[in-house]
Specification:
The protein is flat and about 50 Å long. It is mainly beta and 134 residues long. A hairpin with a 2-residue loop joins strand 2 and strand 3. The chain is built from 2 helices and 9 strands. The strands form 2 sheets. It has a 7-stranded mixed beta sheet with strand order 7-8-5-4-1-6-9. Strands 2-3 form a two-stranded antiparallel ribbon. Helices cover 10% and strands 39% of the residues.
């Protein structure tokens, strides 16, 4: 009997974050301290900044008008900054602005490999005149 079960296949799972970013416009909605979990327990002090991002436009639709199926979906991003008040204030100043992720890292996980863990160094604000999806 043959099966399609292999060991160590997780290292072959990849997500092309650059291509995903080219086809979507992101908006920063919220920032707050983020807590790491060790052995299922939340650490006492926050260790990063957690940002809530919304997909404002999804250019994967057939006409490339920004109306794709992921439009308005939201996801969390772990920003590799300490959640000190000054750092949180810097990010709070760009809430509701269009942003791109700077040096993003994505890990695919889950039973069906359909979940993403996303982190980045920081955000870059996109100017109003910059076209996306073209």
């Amino acid at each position: 009997m043959t099966t399609n079960a292999f060991k160590n296949t997780r290292r072959y799972t990849a997500f092309d974050v650059e291509a995903f970013a080219r086809d979507h416009r992101f908006q920063l909605l919220k920032v707050e301290p983020g807590y790491a979990y060790v052995d299922g327990q939340r650490e006492e002090h926050p260790s990063y900044i957690k940002a809530l991002i919304m997909i404002k436009e999804d250019y994967t639709d057939e006409a490339r008008q920004g109306l794709g199926v992921n439009r308005f979906n939201q996801f969390n991003v772990k920003v590799k900054w300490k959640p000190e008040p000054g750092n949180l204030q810097k990010f709070s100043e760009i809430i509701l602005r269009d942003v791109t992720l700077v040096n993003p890292e994505v890990k695919v996980y889950g039973e069906y490999q359909n979940l993403l863990s996303i982190s980045c160094e920081t955000f870059k604000v996109i100017g109003n005149g910059q076209a996306k999806g073209n």
